[in-house]
Specification:
Elements: H1 10-17, H2 21-29, H3 39-51, H4 58-65, E1 70-75, H5 81-96, E2 100-105, H6 110-122, E3 127-131, H7 136-146, E4 149-153, E5 162-165, H8 167-181, E6 194-196, H9 203-220, E7 228-229, H10 235-249, E8 255-258, H11 261-271, H12 276-281, E9 283-286, E10 300-304, H13 307-319, E11 327-330, E12 333-335
Parallel strand pairs: 1-2, 1-3, 3-4, 4-5, 5-11, 6-7, 6-8, 8-9, 9-10
Antiparallel strand pairs: 10-12
Helix pairs in contact: 1-2, 1-3, 5-13, 6-7, 8-9, 10-11
Amino acid sequence: MNGQRPKTTIKDIARLTEASPSTVSAVLSGTWQSRRISEATAERIRAVAGQQGFSVNRQARGLRRGRSDMVGLILPMHDNRFFAAVTQSFEAEARARHLCPVVVSTLRDPAEEIRTVERLISYAIDSLVIAGATDPAAIGAICQAAGVRHVYLDLPGHDAPSVVSDNRLGAARLTGTLLDRMRTGETGSRALPVFLGGSASDAATARRIEGFREVVGERLGEVRPEQVIACGYAPSHAKAEIAALCQRLGGLPALLFINSITVFEGALTHLVTLPGEELELAAIGCYDYDPIASFLPFPLHMIRQNSEALVAQAFRLIDEEAEGPLLLEIPPDLVPPRTIFATPFDLG
């Protein structure tokens, strides 16, 4: 009709390949190995299906089977190497299980998070990994109502299993390393270590502040309120705060703990205006990792979160159908500077 070619059916492919319709269905649905169908037969069926322009209606098949073979990942942004690494690991783990990975950024918008999750559920998604959610409680309630298995990653939830970095441990290691490197002889306010960035109400930041306070408290005494500047993650806020801090102190603090790569990006726009010698002598660390930062002309210690282990554990919990507010913490890695420059320099 209207010159259009009739749609090819499974029966058509069965006739063309001299296989049974059930064998064709198993091959096209990806379950042929469990049926002990030979790889040669599977290849022949897929080749004919491709020649005939046949595609499986996976949404309809998912509704019939009660599953879609799709697994989703929502994350705040694609704006740093950590979330990019999480996405790559997620896709690899999903494909190893013959699942279709669906990755969506929600732009750190709680309303967008809810809309995205509701849309994924409407497509009969089998399970969901929730990374860095702004409102995990609201998302969890939606998943529970729909019977969708879900796991929190990066930031913990309270109704389902969570896999997060051991942020307190990572912050303690970074702080201790920076204290070991901090120049001696500094007096006054500049001698006090400073924590910059993040939100104190954010679970990850709160744990990092805890680790920072513990180590500084043990070695230098109690941390004052002005030593923790939780200014959010926006680079523009970090730039303004580090500029104001340097003006207030008359220069860089002897130790600067920067909480995330986006905060570091903002701080760096001010740091590069400072004398190179001052940067070289300061103990600066970032709780995040980007290999490009190792080429900066001043030493920068970094914390690299183990995205592969985080995602692998999330999939293990999904595979095992784990339930309840189980919390797994994965130790991060401390990455020392690639080069310590021996002589002063000028970044200007």
